[in-house]
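[User]
If only I could read backbone structure tokens as easily as an amino acid sequence. I have put the entry right below:
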Amino acid sequence: MKRAPGGVSKRAAKAPAKKVTAPARGAAKKAAPAKKSAAVKKTAATKSAAKKAAPAKKTAPAKKAAAAKSTAKKAAPAKKAVTVKETAAPEKAAAKPESRVAMVRRARRINRELADVYPYAHPELDFTNPFELLVATVLSAQTTDLRVNQTTPALFAAYPTPEDMAAAVPEELEELIRPTGFFRAKAKSLLGLSAALRDDFGGEVPGRLEDLVTLPGVGRKTANVVLGNVFGVPGITVDTHFGRLVRRWKWTDEEDPVKVEAVVAEIFPKSDWTMLSHRVVFHGRRICHSRKPACGACPITHLCPAYGEGETDPEKAKKLLKYEKGGLPGQRLNPPPDYPGEPAAPLGAR
């Protein structure tokens, strides 16, 4: 065997070199995959992060877009509502509330036109003196004037003066006024007011509101009827018909008769008060009824804000008319000479 210089053979000299190189190569091979694996891992991690980041970036605009769409959807009806409001504005303007000046003018025009329709308007209670009108008005509460007029002839024949009525036997007085209803309470009032007239006013009906309302059973309505139709003192009579019509005509919304009287008194001059009361009551009884107004036969529909609440067909409306307007007798047995209708029949007559 040939030896290399230094006493080492060629095989020996070559062998260690091979051994050293093999592990190095193995290590290099092992190291290379490690490096590659780290790079792959790094790349994979980067890609994963990119993937995660990408949806996040993508989601943000999507959410923003969705939010914008949602806001737009919500905003759209609001925009539509504004348009509706703007469109409705002209209608609202058309239905502008009536001014007080316009209402007063309309109310006075109604009074003038009713004067043409009912030139014969009058109190619909039969009487020949202040005492009879006072008694008849007290009896007219919660009944018709017709029923009172049919009852009072026998009553006044039995008790023609306050002194006579004050001395009446209660049961006998009650029996005479029974047809008017609530006869016990009414008899008590008649006995009380008759005694007061006898004792405090010398048997005469006083001509002042302040005195009249002190009498039993006499309120402002009764006092105004007596003052306006016997003493010539203007007064507004707020009965059921009057209160109902002035509210229907939008003169006032008040329900209390005293407040209604005060409001209407400010609309009309004092000289109109008594006849205004008669005209309104006449219209309420004949045409402008509570349940079925005869709108189709009403002469003041052009001035009435409640037109259409009743029957508007002219032919059907004519059938709803009452008393002289419907060709029927009136409420008085002894109507004034200018009354165009027929007198009412006595109690018990067919």
In short: The beta strands are 3-4, 8-9. The first helix runs from residue 10 to 94. The two ends are 172 Å apart (CA to CA).
